[in-house]
Amino acid sequence: MRVIKSCTFKIGTKIPYSEYPAIVHRFLEDQNLVSNRFLYYFDELIPYNKTYEETLPTGSCAKALKDCPALGQTRLYNDLELLYLTNIDIDTGCTEADILPNMKKIHRRYGFRECDLYYFDIDFFQKVLPFGRDMSDAKRRSEYFQRAFDPTEMIWDQPYGSGIRLHRYATGGNYISLSIDVLHDGLILDATPYFDAMKALLPNIRPSIHMETYLSEEEQQEIANWDKQIQPTLEASRSFFTQRFPEKRKQNNFPSNYTIAPKLKKLAQQYGFSYQYLSFGGYTLDKRTPRGHILRIFVDSGPSRFDTGFSVFFQGLGFRHQICSLTQTPTNQKESDACAEKMLAVIAEFEKAHIPELDKFYNETPEWYIPSFA
């Protein structure tokens, strides 16, 4: 098992992408660290009025290759009609020194859709664990579309390990993400000093922290066995919510007038949940079960207030199950408060009726586990 804790800084347009590598080098130098693996990924959309053959010699990849031939061969990603360049799965021989002189051209001249630079195999805690590739999404897509497995599907999101990812997207969402293997010799090490050091280089940017676990094949098989055994209990849990809190959708084509955060904070405290605001109207309320698993309520009420969604998850180390997902359409504060109150009351009943049974499955979830939506 690998446990990786990440600290992501959403930069937006505050810092030009061409300056991201200098931040990485300053961080590595200050912390006396070394990156032993450099990866890259660049892509472009094939214009709707052009073919692959027409785009190949004149598009973003072609422009970049003219300045930096070491980037390798342009490849086609059929599903999304993308052309891309990468060394994630193939050693092109391209180095950081080949790319850095062209950093200012990446979005100004080349016009790439997505750009990623990865500095991996960093010796945090004086230990080096080689980066890996998570192909679970590629496997799920091959099963869903009933086609042969393609190891390059979603390749830009596959690399994981101890490293730093520099991400730029043409329409926004730029970030620097610092990821650290924290599980060594059975112990979870504290990555906080490294995160704080990066924060010092990116002042006034509030980061988000999350944790991912990558299981061995044996551990995955054990989880799969539990997944089969828990299905009848999950179905009973889902029926519980269907009967007690059915969806009440109605036409609501105008922004409604209510706020949900104050009520959620009060209800979280009342029912023993932790409370966290995510972004864009998203909130999580979490509670630990006796065996360390997580009962999570995700509430989604965007700025438009056209509706409010409630989802309940049961998750832990290596597993995550959605128990219910329902939408309500309050139009004022009184209706919104009533929805939240009813939801938490139903969940309190659910805890008494079903959590003891659900909690019997899987190994205990350790205290260090941080739930995510991955």
Question: Strand order, biggest sheet?
Answer: 3-4-2-5-8-9-1-12
> Residue ranges: pLDDT <50 for 5 or more in a row?
none
Approximate shape: globular
Instruction: Please state roughly what percent of the residues sit in beta strands, choosing from under 5%, 5-15%, 15-25%, 25-35%, 35-45% or over 45%.
Output: 25-35%
How would you describe what is shown here?
Helices cover 31% and strands 28% of the residues. The strands form four sheets. An eight-stranded antiparallel beta sheet has the order 3-4-2-5-8-9-1-12, covered by helices on one side. A five-stranded antiparallel beta sheet has the order 13-14-15-16-17. It is α+β, with helices and mostly antiparallel strands and 374 residues long. The mean pLDDT is 91.
Task: Give a quick summary of the entry.
By secondary structure, the protein is of the alpha+beta class.
Keywords:
five-stranded antiparallel β-sheet; alpha+beta; about 30% helix; globular; eight-stranded antiparallel β-sheet; 10 helices; about 375 residues; 17 strands
What topology does this entry show?
Elements: E1 2-10, H1 20-30, E2 35-45, H2 52-55, H3 60-67, E3 75-77, E4 82-86, H4 96-99, H5 105-110, E5 114-122, E6 132-133, H6 136-144, E7 159-160, E8 163-169, E9 175-181, E10 183-184, E11 187-188, H7 192-201, E12 208-214, H8 217-244, H9 261-271, E13 274-277, E14 282-288, E15 294-300, E16 308-316, E17 319-328, H10 333-358
Antiparallel strand pairs: 1-9, 1-12, 2-4, 2-5, 3-4, 5-8, 6-7, 8-9, 10-11, 13-14, 14-15, 15-16, 16-17
Helix pairs in contact: 8-10, 9-10
